[in-house]
Amino acid sequence: MANPVDALLDTLTALRSAWVEASGSGADERGMSAAALLDINQRIAGARRLLDGVHARVAAEMSARSRPEFGSDGLARQAGFRSPAKLIAAATGGHTGDAVRLIQVGEATRERTLFSGEAAPARHPHIARALHDGMVSVAAASAISAMLDRVAVRVDADTRADAETALVRQAPLLSLDELHAVLRRAEAHLDPDGLEPVVGELHGQRSLKIQQDATGMTVLTARLDAETAAPIVAAIDAIVTTQLRTSRGHNTASGLTVDGPAGDAADDAPATNGGPVAPETRSLPQMRADALAAICRHASGCDQNTLPKPSTAVVVRMDLSQLREGAGVATIDGIEQPIDAGTARRMAAAADLIPCVLGTASEVLDFGRARRHFSAAQRLALVERDGGCAFCHLPPAFAEAHHIRWWQRDGGTTDLANGILLCTSCHHRVHADNWEIRIEAPPGAPPSAGTVWFIPPSHVDPHRAPRLGGRRRFDPLAYHLVA
Asked: Which of 190, 209, 305, 411 is the most buried (most CB within 10 A)?
C-alpha cells in the first residue's frame, strides 16, 4: 500500500481549497451556501476516516511494542502508562475504550508475520483496503471485524471473505446504528446454528422494571427479546399510526383523496364529518405512552370496548420449507434482531403466521389500471421488498403504499413495479424535492425481489448518484446482487 499520510494530505489540501472557494474570505463558514456546507461536511468526514485509519495502524504498532513480555522496556511503560490504550487515550483526550478499538482495528487490518517469519496478509484484508482508502470508519471496521471473528470457528474462510467483501461495500451507505442492524442479520445467516442459543440468552435477559422517580413519575424500563417485543410493538404502533392518520385527515378535513403528494393510501382513511381536523400536538413518545395506557385499560375491563388492531398481524418472514424443517433464520417486521426457526414455529402456533413467500395463484399481486388501491397482499409483498419505509426504514406500521407514477396524473399502474412504501414525512420529501425513484428487478425475478433506488435532485447531490433503498439497503446477503 502507498503511504497513508499521502492520501490524507491530498484530502486535506482539497478540503482547504474547497473551504476557501466556498467561504470567499477563506475563514468563515457562515457565508457558505447550503450546497457548499454539504460538500465541506463530506470532505471533513472523509478526512476524518483517513486520519483514524492511520491512527489505527500507529496504535497497533504501539501495542505490539508494549507487549507484556517486554516488561518495563515496553513502549507504554517507558512512557509512564500501564497499557498502550491508556497511553493513546491520554494523547487523544478520549475514552480508553476508544483507544482499545483503535488498537483492535489496527491489529485486524495490518499485515502479519507468521511464526515461521513469513509475511502474511491482514486477518481482514478487505476491511484493511477500505480503511486505507477512507471508505469506512474505524467504528464500522471494528463492528464488521468483531462479527467475522465471532463466527470464525463455525464458518469457512471463503464464506467469511465473501461476507467481508459485501459488508465493506455496504458500510459506506449506512450509519453505525444501521450497520449494527445489518451485522445482526448477517451473523444470523452466516451462523444459523449459533442463533438459537443467542435467542435463548436474550430471552433469558428480558425484564421490566417499574419505579417511581423523585418527581412522582412512574418509570418503566424494559429490555425485551424479539419474540416478547413483537406483539407489544405491533399493538402500540397500530394505535399511534391510526391516531396520526386520523389527526392529519389524510391532508383534507373531509377525508377526500388528494392524488399526488397526499398519497394514494389516503382513500383508506376513516371518513370525517367534514369539519376541521384537530392537529396532533403530542410527541411520538407521548403517543406511545398513551397507547400503552389504552391497551392496559382495555385489558382491565373498562368502558372501552374497541381498540385499533394492527393493519397486519405480527409478520414473521421465513422460507416456508425452512419453517417446516425447523432450520434456518427468520425475521419479524419492525424488530431488528433475527430469530431462529424454533422460535418462529412457536410464534406460528400462537398466532397467524405470514410466511416469506407472498401471494398465491388465487391472489394476484398486480392489478394494472383496473384497480387503484394496493391490496393487502400487495402491501405484504412491498413490505418484503422495502422492509418498511423504503427511504428512512421506519417500521411497516408507519409506511403506506404509494404509486411511484401517480395513478390519476400519470396513468400509473397499481402493481409492485410501480408501488413503494413510504412514511408520510419521506413521501412529502420525495415529492417536494423532486427525488426520482427507480425499481429494478432481474429478468424472471418475482416482483417483490426488485431493488429500490432513490436518485437525489441536483441541489442535494450535484452528481445525482443513486442511493440504495428498501430492504436490500440493510440486507448483507442480497447487496452484492444489486451493486
From this structure: 190
How would you class 398 by CB atoms within 10 Å of its CB: exposed for 0-12, middle for 13-18, buried for 19 or more?
buried
Model pTM score: 0.71
146 within domain boundaries: yes
334-369 core/surface letters (b: 16 or more CB in 10 A; e: else): bbbbbbbbebbbebbeeeebbbbebbeeeeebbeee
Domain interval for residue 95: 4-190
List alpha helices for 65-137, DSSP H. Answer: 75-78, 84-92, 96-109, 125-132
Task: Please choose, from the candidates 433, 421, 351, the residue with its C-alpha nearest in 3D space to the C-alpha of residue 390.
Answer: 421
- Within a domain: residue 48? yes
Contact 186, 476 (CB under 8 A): yes
| 166 occurs within a structural domain | yes
Beta bridge partners of 402: 420
Number of domains composing the chain = 1
Span 327-365, pLDDT tens digits: 778 888 778 888 887 787 767 655 544 544 434 443 445
What grid cell was written down for 443? Answer: 429478468
pLDDT in tens, 22-39: 887 667 888 888 888 999
At 167-212, the pLDDT tens digits run 999 999 899 999 998 999 899 888 888 888 888 899 999 999 999 9
CB-CB contact of 130 with 141 (8 Å): yes
376: Cβ contacts below 8 Å, ≥ 6 apart: 312
